[in-house]
Structure formats: structure tokens, C-alpha cells
Amino acid sequence: MERVNPSRREFLKTSALTTGGLVIAFxxxxxxxxxxxxxxxxxxxxxxxxLRVGSDDSVTVLLAHSEMGQGIWTALPMLxxxxxxxxxxKIRVEHAQAAPAYAHAVFxxxxxxxxxxxxxxxxxxxxxxxxxxxxxxRAAAQRFGVRPAVCRTENGQVIAGRKRARxxxxxxxxxxxxxxxxxxxxxxxxxxxxxxxxxxLDTPEKITGRAQFGMDVxxxxxxxxxxxxxxxxxxTVKSFDATEAKSVPGVREVVEVPSGxxxxxxxxxxAKLGRDALKIEWDPGPNAxxxxxxxxxxxxxxxxxxWPTLRWGRSIAPCGSAPTGxxxxxxxxxxxxxxxxxxxxxxxxxxx
Amino acid sequence: MFEETxxxxxxxxxxxxxxxxxxxxxxKFSCGMAQCGACTVHxxxxxxxxxxxxxxxxxxxxxxxxxxxxxxxxHPVRRAWAEIxxxxxxxxxxxxxxxxxxxxxxxxDPSDADIDAALTGNICRCGTYQRIRSAVHRAADLVRKG
Lengths: 352, 146
Prior knowledge:
Chain A is built from ten helices and 15 strands. Chain A is an alpha+beta fold. In chain A, the strands form five sheets. Chain A has a five-stranded mixed β-sheet.
């Protein structure tokens, strides 16, 4: 994937939903064409949207990262809802599709990992929420005939004196306004949502079996493949006989693939039975004689070696604390540990 | 629906009839050898590991999956699960909930030890066990209060 420079990417834009809503999106050089194509087709496809405000007052947050139990299905919406002063009960969440706009703000590719989602998105998601709020306030000010400065926002509404408007009523008008170049984020002392214990938004789907995991994706005509793999690391297929496998009801095809022989069937069980019925002659390759006994002996030998002790510290002096009998090898004499002090490393390469 | 001929032999596990033939994907496949509990369903009210339950053994019996526990989330186990925010990644939770619901039917006031014994076969890699136990107690409360 092309590495996206975050400093060039922080370019907010809006677009209208065909249903009359507001979309806050980030433009990325290179996806303009895709967005334009979608607009021509009249679709609500928004390949770079971070949030959509619907005319039904719903606020849909698109996650640039995967929820896998760590709680970002709730944490990222909290960032947007905070700055948007959204009605928390109207928050909806969706995983974003794969698109350059969703590249990790620090690592430059679309990914989830390293406990990095919340801190890396802390500014971007709040910025998206604050931008949407600014636009909704201006739309309301125009409608009320007041200055934006006299409007405040609360629980999904813009309020000016006795006048009130719901975000859903303002979304379409807001989508036609020019995006402000800069919006101020809240002072942390004014946070009402960030930092507060909040129920997970993914619970309802996960306790009813409705949540769709990767393996749950189904569509008409979807087949399932099961691969028979070499019993030896690095082994390859010499030849195979698929006659019996192909006679299993539901098996559609048997094909050789780089990792072995794949049986393609209407469903898992037919594919599995097909795999079991394959007759394969393997070329075991260079690891033909490798077995558990040999591996265990090798590990046992390694355990009995004398292990040197590494000293961690700022000093670049050679390690001087190795126990008698341990020689300084290149593995530890050439490495300079620069963090911590006087910590002893339990993991270093044994010297022979 | 599927045709009876789609079932490949009497040994085809109930799990794959549910998931691949009926499209009920709330019941999860994980270990495939009755070691993790993710595929737990009720067969005539009792918890069963559907990955090793031959479809022939389930024929003519009442099968309840997570989808059928209650369509509106009103089952006491579900309410307790939501209240205590048990779930993390969620992959094992269909099985946890089915085991917990079966336990409460058999034993409306389980002790910690009863809960541990009944749910010991349901593995959670996120480690939500403490909340699961609290939620089972809470569900028992909810059943008592109606």
C-alpha cells in the first residue's frame, strides 16, 4: 500500500448524502477520482468518510481500525461524540472499508495493532467531530438568523435562546457549507464523555449472535476450500489422486495450491471429507528426518549451555559481569543497551 | 432451507448444518473437537458441543441456538451480560451464554463453584471469566425477580 504522508492528508471535506445528510471525510491525494466516480453513480459510497450525520439524527462513526475486543468500537465514537456534543443514543458504528483515507495516522497504512488505535486517532477523530459541529452550528445560525457565536450545542441539538434544531434537521444544509480551515477542540476540563466509564456499543450484536466475524461472511455461491498440507515443514506435493475426494457429495473441485492440495466444496464438511479422501504422495524435502525426538534433544542440549549475563545500562563499556566460563561473543559485546539501568536480561544468545 | 441430501453422511456435525446449510452463523466454529465450547447449543434443552454432535443424533430433537434464545435480547442471561458488559472480542460468547442459560435452567441459584464447573469447558481468550461469573449470578437474580 502506498504510504500516505499524514501532513498532506489532513484535509477535511464534506459531502451530502443522497438521503440529505452530512458526511465528514478526509481527502487523500489519489482518491479524488474514486469519490467522483461514486458521486456520478449517485451512491452514498463515501470512501473517506469518518462520520455521517443522517437526516434521522443518527451519527454513524466509521472505524478506520478493527474492533477485536480492545474496545475501539466504543472509544473512537466517544472521541467524535465528545466534540460533536452528540446524543450518545444516536451513535451508530461501522467498520470502514479498505481505502487510503483510513491509513494509520502514524504508521501510514491501514492497520490495527500495537495498542495504537486510541492515541493515534485521538486528534483525527476529535477533529472530525469538531468540524461537523462547527458546520451544524453555522447551518443553525443561518436558520435562526443569529450569529454562530450565540449558539451552543447539547445532546444532538443546536440551541440559541429558545430556538432549537436537531442535527438531523440541519445536516443537509450543513453539508453545503464550506469546511472551516481550523476548528478549536474542547478544553479537557469540559469533557463529558472522554475519560468516563462507558458501556460498550458492540455488546448487543455480540450477545445475540448477530455480530459478523470474518468466518461468518456468507453470500450466494460462496464455496469453502480446505487445504491438505504436507506433514513435514517445507514438504511439497509429488503427486495426488483426487478420484475419491471428487466423489464426496458437495465437492466441486480439487486443485494443487502452493501450500498443498485444496478441496473446494459447497460447505466446510464436504470439503473436509474430501480432503480426508485425498491420496497424496509428498516430497518431504530437507526436513524429512526432523521429528519431535530430535527437536526435544536439541532444546535440551541448549538448556544445559552456560548462559552469559547481560548488563543493561547507559554505559557502552563491555559487559563485565558474565559468569565464569561464559565468553563474550559478538551477540552481547557489540550491542549497546541504552535504556534502563543495571537490569539483567534473561534473554541472550548462549555462548558455546 | 436446505435439502436433506445436502447433509453429507450421518456424521456431518450439527454445527455445519446450522452454519453452512441454515446460515445461522451465531454459533461459532473454533476448535472442532469439543475442547473450547464456542459451538455450544441446546439439544432438547441440554448444552451440547455442536461441532462433535452428529446431525443424525440431533434428528427429531429441539435445537436452540444463540439466535433462538430470545429474539429481542430479553432473556435474563442476555440482560445480565449487557448490564455487566461481559463481552470483549465476543467470539466465544455465544457458547458462554448458551452454557450459562442451560445452567440456570438446571440450577436457578448456582454458587461460584457450580458456575465454574458448568462453564469450565467454555474457553475465553480475552479472559472475561470474572465478569461471566458475575453475570451468571446477576442473571439468576433477574430470573428470581421475574
